[in-house]
């Protein structure tokens, strides 16, 4: 996309990076950015050659949340205009096979923190500040925060984070299990790239089934989850990657997965 776009889309091989690009506003998401993210998610969902997705922010922050001038002009309509495309984007990205990595620095607040929580992996720069923030503006959360947060930290801690609206440090986030790793800012790019390349070289069909099985496991009893696992295993067995993995195991070599 052109340099003035609120969302920069960059592809290297099987890895697609989506960079929020309103640095002067700390990447607060406005309607054009929300629409661009939805459109990018649609393209990714339709392209099975994508095998890893990275979310990141330009400038000093990951994302400072929703664009307040958009909400100030007409809170109800502004929220609807933002949440329609954003919810579609999150739904699409949760359903693809490619794992999603959030590369977070500076600030992730409000919708930015909610969007971060939707990723499968979160790598955080030292010094990053997180705040769910909604309650400080007098509203409830969106973008799946009420779904993701209790699953990650438990109900009691989720209520504390959501209802008090206090700022969390990077160390807090790691201790609570909100993120996977905290790294020096200078090492964040390299660590994310290394993880994305590792995931993109993996058995993408199996990764997709695994991420969806984990996310939906809270909504099923054990017999239903066993049945879902069996269906997913059957689909993996029809892929090219399971035979390759078995052959590589017996040949004592590294498997060459194609993601198909």
From TrEMBL:
GO terms for molecular function: isomerase activity. InterPro entries: ClpP/crotonase-like_dom_sf, Enoyl-CoA_hyd/isom_CS, Enoyl-CoA_hydra/iso, Enoyl-CoA_hydra_C. It is an enzyme of class 5 (isomerase). It holds the Pfam family ECH_1. Keywords: Isomerase. CDD domains: crotonase-like (cd06558). Its EC number is 5.3.3.18. Gene3D superfamilies: 2-enoyl-CoA Hydratase, Chain A, domain 1, Lyase 2-enoyl-coa Hydratase, Chain A, domain 2. The keyword Isomerase applies. The keyword Isomerase applies. Belongs to the enoyl-CoA hydratase/isomerase family. This is 2-(1,2-epoxy-1,2-dihydrophenyl)acetyl-CoA isomerase.
């Amino acid at each position: 996309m052109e340099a003035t776009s609120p969302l920069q889309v960059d592809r290297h091989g099987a890895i697609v990076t989506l960079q929020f690009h309103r640095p002067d506003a700390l990447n607060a998401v406005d309607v054009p950015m929300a629409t661009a993210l939805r459109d990018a998610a649609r393209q990714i969902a339709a392209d099975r050659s994508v095998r890893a997705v990275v979310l990141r922010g330009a400038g000093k922050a990951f994302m400072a949340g929703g664009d307040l001038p958009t909400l100030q002009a007409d809170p109800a309509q502004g929220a609807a205009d933002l949440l329609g495309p954003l919810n579609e984007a999150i739904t699409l990205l949760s359903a693809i096979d490619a794992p999603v990595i959030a590369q977070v620095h500076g600030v992730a607040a409000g919708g930015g923190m909610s969007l971060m929580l939707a990723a499968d992996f979160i790598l955080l720069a030292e010094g990053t500040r997180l705040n769910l923030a909604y309650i400080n503006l007098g509203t409830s959360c969106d973008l799946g925060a009420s779904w993701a947060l209790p699953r990650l930290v438990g109900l009691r801690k989720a209520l504390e984070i959501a209802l008090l609206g206090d700022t969390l440090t990077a160390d807090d986030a790691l201790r609570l299990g909100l993120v996977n790793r905290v790294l020096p800012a200078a090492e964040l790019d390299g660590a994310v790239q290394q993880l994305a390349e590792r995931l993109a070289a993996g058995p993408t069909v199996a990764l997709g089934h695994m991420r969806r099985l984990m996310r939906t496991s809270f909504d099923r009893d054990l017999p239903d989850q066993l049945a879902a696992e069996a269906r997913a295993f059957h689909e993996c067995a029809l892929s090219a990657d399971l035979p390759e993995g078995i052959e590589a195991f017996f040949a004592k070599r590294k498997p060459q997965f194609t993601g198909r």
